[in-house]
Amino acid sequence: MAKPLEQFEIKTLVDIPVGGLDASFTNASVFMVIAVAAITLFLTLGMRQRALVPGRWQSLAELSYQFVAQLVRENVGAEGRQYFPFIFTLFMFILFSNMIGLIPYAFTVTSHIIVTFALALVVFLGVTLVALIKHRLRFFSFFMPPGVPLYMAPLLVPIEIISYLARPVTLGLRLFANMMAGHTMLKVFAGFIVVLGIGGIAPIAAIVLLYGLEVIVAVLQAYVFIILTCLYLHDALHLH
After folding, report:
1. Is residue 30 part of a domain?
2. Is residue 98 part of a domain?
3. Closest CA to 130 of 89, 74, 79, 73
4. Residues 207-225: pLDDT tens digits?
5. pLDDT of 1 over the 60 cut
6. How many domains does the chain fold into?
7. Cα–Cα distance between 184 and 111 in angstroms, integer?
8. Domain range for residue 118?
9. According to DSSP H, which parts of 15-55 are helical?
10. Within a domain: residue 155?
11. Which of 110, 118, 226 minimizes the C-alpha distance to 179?
12. Is residue 11 part of a domain?
């Protein structure tokens, strides 16, 4: 009988203890390396010829670049150009990790909260550091919206602080929950096909539909993660 959650189990491949900490190389590590290698290969092959009339791979590489560049330009502004390499790298890693996870028997690293939360925490700490460096103490005015009466501060400031600190949690949780839920549903319907055998036509049709939906979700979740990163960066650069 199919075990829907078994696909998320992390398995140690090479045991690497470091100072009492477990730094083992796992199946999750393998697929992170695969994602990075696939991105590198995709961009290298895509831009190798740099043809005036781009081919298929070059068009895809340029489209990826232009898509993220436009997001940064529209949501962060001209000041966001220097942060484009980080945002582009983040987008490509999440997108490729999501898409590789849709390959049968592959491992989806973005279905683990520790991975998605780590990515979200890097974004949170990064934009906070940018805001502190640029605005110094004026950064804390972010927690007191302009035009609000001073007597409302005891109520609004704690709410704004909690909302700000919740950003990495919601950002990481959204990606993790969507990827894990979709893959679990696929595994459940796959189990019905095994049980029903030749009579499992309905589950097969459901899997085809769910797979198509998961492809859309994989792209959409990468987009949502990046658009929120851009909005957080905009807040850090311009405060209100």
Report:
1. yes
2. yes
3. 79
4. 788 888 889 999 999 999 9
5. no
6. 1
7. 10
8. 22-238
9. 27-46
10. yes
11. 110
12. no
